[in-house]
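For the sake of transparency, this paper describes our internal protein records without simplification. The remainder of this section carries one protein's record, kept here as part of the documentation:
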Amino acid sequence: MKRLVLPRLYVILDAALLTVPETDCAQELATAGVRLLQYRNKRASARELFETSKKLLLLLSPLGVSLVVNDRPDVAAVAGANGVHVGQEDLGVEEVRRVVGAEKLVGVSTHNLEQFERAAASSVDYIAVGPIFTTGTKSNLDPVVGTQFIREVRPLTDKPIVAIGGITLQRAPEIIESGADSVAVISDILRAPEPAARARQYIDLLGPASHAAST
């Protein structure tokens, strides 16, 4: 089985941080070279999440950009998204897989060794670990795990590891060197004066994807 290769940069399009429409921001990021986006909107109704996801897919699919929907496998499946990302409080990985099917990307957030081992033994496609550093984008913070945790879990799986939490351009190389395949960035890109330019800096620094993560 061929190993999934994710782009080095995984941008989380968090609606709570956007000052422009989601499609405008996504267009700029795609033009800058971003090839994997997650749409996160904790406040949206299922209908709103579906409608925005459809708009994003219509924009991004022709550009070769993969879209993952946060939390909602049902919305991801109906919208035709490339995948879904779930947390520890959401449906379990195998239940999520039954909703979205075998061909879609399924990612899961983990915050400790037990959660990571459980994810590694599941059908999940990639495993997010964090928070690597202190972050201000989540209210119920899990303990910071640091890059040492990435080194600890890297030998446990061939699945791609995505690092998340407090990631900045300056810290990104250290995270990749510690064994992560990809960095998931929110604030450092969305709150930058020019998000697309910041995204381009990440891509230039870390390198592009070996191939797109679309399914």
Remarks:
- Confidence is low (pLDDT under 50) at residues 210-215.
- The longest strand covers residues 9-14.
- The two ends are 15 Å apart (CA to CA).
